[in-house]
Each structure stands twice: as structure tokens, then as C-alpha cells.
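Side project, low priority. Logging it here so it doesn't get lost.
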Amino acid sequence: NETGNNFAISSKGVGDALVRSAAALAAAGNDFDESIALITAANNVVQDPDKVGNALKTVSMYLRAAKTEAEEAGESTDGMAGVSKLRDEILALTNGKVDIQLDENTFKSTTQILRELSEVWNELTDITQANILEKIGGKRNSNVVVSLLENFDTVEDVLASSANAAG
């Protein structure tokens, strides 16, 4: 309710997006508030909770190189890299500034990875940005991912609002 009352998404929109993405986002280390924040920030630009939910499900699977899960969910895995390859590619494309893992055995959450990418996003060339978008979201989700990366302050605002909400 707090999010629906204060940001450009209804409570129903949040719910619709969560139906499509909650399990994948949770498996990718995001808590409930982070999931709502990602949904809200992406929807601020895209204005389609169903599309946002599907895109966040895909992004969370791509970032964890969860090919089997993506295929089972009906997502295209063309160009999806393995874990070590994706880690190396993102590190290289961001000049060593963004690592998708905390250590050899642990992924960062989707929220943390996107936060770190957003911090270096404007330093990257257009070609590098396009490469990253395809690697973490596939061909169909670039607009949702770029809306998050370019407006990550909204994610932080939703998290702050949620932390101060009663109930």
C-alpha cells in the first residue's frame, strides 16, 4: 500500500508483477522490499507491471546463469552465458568495477548487481551498455533493464519508503 500510494504503480500492479517474478527474485537473493522496489522503479518508465514482472524474472535468472530454470519458464536462453563466463564478461565490460558474485560460491542479489551497474552505467560506451543489456536481460528485456539502471534512485526511494512504512 505504501508503494502504491507514493509511486507510479498501483498495489494491484505490484501484485501482478510479483506473481510473475517473486519466486525467481527470492531465489536470486532479493528480499520482499527489494523485489517491490525493482518492480516499482522499472514500472515508472515501462508502465506495464506484467512486462516488468516477466523481465525481472528473466534478469534474475540470467544473472545467475540459471539456464535450465529459464528454459522451463519459457524464456529464450540464446546467448546466455555460464556463470564463470558471465562473471568474467561483466567484470571486463565494467573495467573490473562490477562483480556478480560475492565470492566463488555466492552470487550477489539482483538488487546489488543492478545497483553496482547503475553506479558505473554513465561511464560506459553505448556499445558496452548494449552488450551488458543483452547479457543480463536477453533481447526482449533491454528496455526494462535500462529503465532500472538509469533510474536506480527510485529503487532506493522505494526501499526507504518501505523501511519507514507502518505494518
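Brief comment: Residues 20 and 54 are 6 Å apart (CA to CA).
Revisit when time allows.
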